Amino acid sequence: MSNDASTASGMSSSEIRNFTLNFGPQHPAAHGVLRLILEMDGETIDRADPHIGLLHRGTEKLAEQRMFNQSIPYMDRLDYVSMMCNEHAYVMTIEKLLGIEVPERAQYIRVMYDEITRILNHLMWLGTHALDVGAMTVFLYCFREREDLMDLYEAVSGARMHAAYYRPGGVYRDLPDEMPKHKPNQWRSEADLKAQNVGRDGSVLDFIENFTERFPALVDEYETLLTDNRIWKQRTVDIGIVDADLAKQLGFTGPMLRGSGVAWDLRRKEPYEVYDKLDFDIPVGVTGDCYDRYLVRIEEMRQSNHIIKQCAAWLQQNPGPVISSDLKVAPPARADMKEGMESLIHHFKYFTEGYSVPEGEAYAAVEHPKGEFGTYILSDGANKPYRLKIRAPGFAHLSAMDEMVKGHMLADVVAVIGTMDVVFGEIDR
Amino acid sequence: MALTDDTLQERLEEQFEELDLIITDANGELTVEVAAADYLEFCLALRDKPQFQMEQAVDLCGVDYLDYGKEANTPWIGQRYAVVLHLISYRLNERLRVRCFVEDDDFPVIPSVIEIWKSVNWYEREAFDLMGIIFDGHPDLRRILTDYGFVGHPLRKDFPMLGNVEMRYDEIKGRVIYEPVTIDERVNTPRVVRKDNRYV
Asked: Which residues are bridge partners to A49 per DSSP?
């Protein structure tokens, strides 16, 4: 490429200066396995053709062969930086088909973990986006906080990422009374250990409250690195502008749509779970460029923090069940199963055959950190879905790649990939 | 989706009296079945008429009804393929699902709605790739998710879950080769339909 470029620049302007450039599939700025075929006129993009599917695992086909609950872990692996939100859309669709109620405490837990996931996702996005655009430090800062949030995942589900915590009818178990602590070892000094265990003396909820106290100052820290940074602004302001009408046409949702000035958020417009009882704002951009989308996501982190705080306060006050008591769709308590015949039968049927979902179809969507993440399930009455369609926000966003980078320089492609927040797990499914 | 206005059904019936629509309201969602011949015209009206204003196609997917109802011994009669479109109106805060059965089972062709909603571009490519439905009028109907040179449409019900070919590196030929699959499919949990008295 560099050879071609140097010979081309030596040519007179009347000669053709068009190149086809292959970007990826293994490229540090491609956020996974994106292969882009760029048709360029000098350093300007004429046409971008993303080739996707390199991470296609056939989740939809696999789900057709599995009981409803067996597909929950597959949902984690779709958008693997916002795991619980994916599960949420899936279990909500099943709940809709089954027509079951979720206990209020489970709804609060879900909302709280959705928002933790949103911060988790936005931190990942911010770190990698800044890294691509040339700011290394932010990446290190973001991953420091991600560690705390991953510990929260681990505390409730046992897994740092692929939690499988949400279940139709509620969540797998209640929040533990004790937050796990880092243990002393030969590589960790006394002082380090103390610093790492800050806020971990009480329950998981205490640690979450401690985190929400600390987090706004940390967001300020990221902002001091970027918001007024001249290089950051040169790389993002007026790059990849999408106006409101075009954003709707192109299928944008979430921060991509709000960055273009459309005040649309499923948490407000189609409130699910307990979002209608919570106080939070929806940030909206003005110009629809990469910088606005950056500002929207930063503000979303602050709002998420505010929501987590409200949920944690409610959960401290209100104990209760966290999963439906309907034994056809939720397993019985372990102790009951050991003693009661009926519970044993329910337990056996639940884990071997699953539950049959009434014939019909449903689509449920959540405000996922990346946009509208929905699942459409068509059921013929069996214990497995007849057809599962996953509506991934990144898929629609990436399809607008051509539209967004046309006329921009090659280096801006990296900024646009970053602003889309693409994760191939959900795009390729 | 719970917010879908109750009058949407009435507005649809009023506007499209002459079309043979089947409207169902289930789980708080409205589904409209439209004949393939009216599909394009219907979609255009949904976008442009002030009482619908469906500005965005949120999702489009293909469905293969080949095995539908097999376990319950009520085999599917009717067309095999359908296209399911999820629409949203931002101004009216309404959603609508449109289903259109594709006329011919052997060579399923349906008009593309890409001129109406740009966002269906990749969704139609995906439905073509995975389900083999051909969208007439789509400018760039290539495979999207499967491998370059892939044969078959994996989400069709008669496509085996394990696929037809497996891939390995051949030392002698010095390249990757494809061979028929050597493993057997194993079903751990059979697919069953249970009448559940809670829902009667």
From this structure: A37
